[in-house]
Amino acid sequence: MKILVIGSGGREHGLVWKIKQSPLVSKLYCAPGNAGISSIAEIVPIKATDKNALLLFAKYEGIDLTVVGPEHPLTEGIVDLFESNGLKTFGPSRLAAELEGSKVFSKQFMKRYDIPTAEFRSFNIEERFDAERYINEVPVPIVIKADGLAAGKGVTVCETKEQALETLDSMFEQKVFGEAGSKIVIEEFLVGEEASVFALTDGKEYVVLSPAQDHKRILDGDKGKNTGGMGAYAPTSIVTDEVLNRVKRDIIRPTLLGMAKEGRQYKGCLYIGLMITETGPKVVEYNCRFGDPETQIVLPLIDEDIVPFLFEIANGKLSKTKIKLKNASAVCVVIASRGYPDRYEVDKSIVGLDAIKEQNVVVFHAGTKYNKDDIVTSGGRVLGVTAIGVDLEETVDEAYRAVEKITFDGAYYRSDIGKKGIERI
Ligand code: AMP
Ligand code: GLY
């Protein structure tokens, strides 16, 4: 089978790494990939958002299965385009991807199907005065979210009413998120710990991967700015069997049924971002794709070939209701470049990659490229160092021992990835 993975980050390195292990694969491509991916797949120099060029390539090469990593091509309908050209593709259609592409849609959807989530109201740019009135009525903190994709920056937790009004102004007047901020959601602040659950689904049947906990803030102790994710571990004991059963019954099942009913059958990986509150799990967000860096821990914990799952789902018929998971823990520590999540430095030579020889450690590349024979940084998140082991605490130590062997000018990582999980034990 010839497989094409679309994307260039740590998530895509994770996907390529796992898919590569399948005996069903004869040829593996990644567009546009990165330096790490180039050692295990053939790089295709086409951007993830250039869907017409990707289509031409996939048709020309006779690709049997395309796996789409990032959200942008999905919300722009790459799956619809590929499928209408007879190409099997893992990922949701444009309409299904709106679960991530529009917060207003996803919140109203959850309301229609009684799916547990924060209380909210949505407003468009003409309803500014109603939004102001609402802000003045409800208690703080409150959360304001731009409707559209905003590279993980569209959410502001407002501690005061003044901050909420300023945030409103930045979205509706200064238009900092452009079109993405012309509609907003204002919602209740949820108290609890976050976790993420991934369902691989054909829209009816699904299997869930190990529940994960991401670390979204840039600094230790969950302080500082929000990022795409600075590290993650799985499984997380915050998602107990009881919580997971509730997630399946009250969230995944009604989400799939509701989407199918509305003509938006969801096929691909459904990412459910959860807040585990005192009254149970609530949805913070849906994403229409695998998480990053969660992919770099949940895929190494799968104890069987992933390709049959991806292929069956792309064909619209998943025959399995369970996926074999390892009885182990995985931890990923992200090494970022100075400045991230704002403007970050690039083109720094990375040293120490060759020093990682441990069987149970994998270095996933997120923002790297070749400069002649040197591997240099090219993104804000540069590497994700994953360790797999039996005991969470030992696995965390193993990951950090590897992280300490790698460096580049301005390398930065959090030192407390997995700590919450260890403390809970
Ligand atoms: P989102 O892009 O919707 O996942 O939001 C980004 C981050 O903002 C989440 O990971 C949470 O840490 C935080 N957040 C979003 N919505 C809420 C909420 N209703 N209550 C508390 N924190 C939230
Ligand atoms: N790690 C968060 C995300 O993938 O959206």
Short summary of the structure?
The protein is α+β, with helices and mostly antiparallel strands.
Mind explaining what this structure looks like?
The protein is α+β, with helices and mostly antiparallel strands. It has four domains: 2-76, 3-Layer(aba) Sandwich (Rossmann fold), CATH 3.40.50; 120-188, ATP-grasp fold, A domain (Dna Ligase, domain 1), CATH 3.30.1490.20; 193-314, D-amino Acid Aminotransferase, Chain A, domain 1; 329-424, Glycinamide Ribonucleotide Synthetase, Chain A, domain 4. 29% of the residues lie in helices and 27% in strands. The chain has 13 helices and 23 strands. Strands 12, 15, 18, 19, 22 and 23 form a six-stranded antiparallel beta sheet that branches. Strands 3-2-1-4-5 form a five-stranded parallel beta sheet, sandwiched between helices. The mean pLDDT is 96. The structure holds adenosine monophosphate and glycine. The site of adenosine monophosphate has 15 residues, from β7, β8, β9 and β17.
Rg, rounded, reads 21 Å
- Counting helices, strands and paired strands, the structural category is alpha+beta
Shape: globular
Instruction: Give the bound compounds.
Output: adenosine monophosphate, glycine
Counted beta strands: 23
Q: How many angstroms separate the termini?
A: 43 Å
The total of helices stands at 13
CATH-assigned fold name of the largest domain: D-amino Acid Aminotransferase, Chain A, domain 1
Largest β sheet strand count, sense and barrel closure: 6 strands, antiparallel
Number of domains: 4
